[in-house]
Amino acid sequence: MRWTHGTWTVTSGRETDFAQASERPAEWTVSAFPGARATLLRDAERPNVFISFGPWPDSETVARWRASPEFQEHLDTIRETLASFEARSLEHVATKQSGVWLQRRVRRAFRLREGGVESFGDKAQRRALGMGRHQDRRSSVDSSTAPKRP
Q1: Alpha carbons 2 and 83: distance in angstroms, whole number
Q2: Which residues pair with 89 in a beta bridge?
Q3: Is domain 2-91 given the CATH code 3.30.70.100 in the classification?
Q4: Confidence grade of residue 33 (pLDDT, cut at 50, 70, 90)
Q5: In sequence order, what E strands does the chain have?
Q6: Which uninterrupted H or E stretch holds 53?
Q7: Which pTM value belongs to this model?
Q8: What is the rounded distance in angstroms from the CA atom of residue 17 to the CA atom of residue 75?
């Protein structure tokens, strides 16, 4: 998987123009490249700096996207609002999810407290921990509240 990343430094006072102008290439990208996603963020501390990023299946698709006449036309329109622009192609290395971290923490809590519960997949265990399917995964689990084995 490849990711594209752009750092857009907008000429002061042109932030609204940039945000509006960047909608058209984003719409074109997601329609011309099925499965593409485009995200635009604004720096909270430097309001004239924007970050764009999105995942791509491979580097060949990124090259086709960047080489297309439509992409170049959209970029030319946006450049009118820019002080500078930096584009990058990135390789995906890792993704962490809080649910995975929580699952490992609960397993560890059981092993430490009770001496060897190996399975977390048991519905009774999840229910005993108050972990239904829709549980807020950001919560933490205290090993002192883990149920005791009979």
Answers
A1: 27
A2: 4
A3: yes
A4: very high
A5: 2-10, 39-42, 49-56, 82-91
A6: strand 49-56
A7: 0.63
A8: 13
Strand ranges across the sheet with 49-56: 39-42, 49-56, 2-10, 82-91
H/E element, 9 = strand 2-10
143 DSSP assignment: G
Domain ranges for the chain: 2-91, 98-145
**120 or 39: which leads in pLDDT:** 39
In the block, tokens 């485009």 appear at 38
* Look-up of token digits 């090259």: 63
**Is residue 41 helix, strand or coil?**
strand
Tokens of 58: 């491979």
- Please check the confidence at residue 97 and state whether its pLDDT lies above 70: yes
In the structure encoding, which two tokens stand for residue 26, read together?
Answer: 């984003």
Q: Is 103 exposed, middle or buried (0-12, 13-18, 19+ CB in 10 A)?
A: middle
Q: Both tokens of residue 142? A: 């205290």
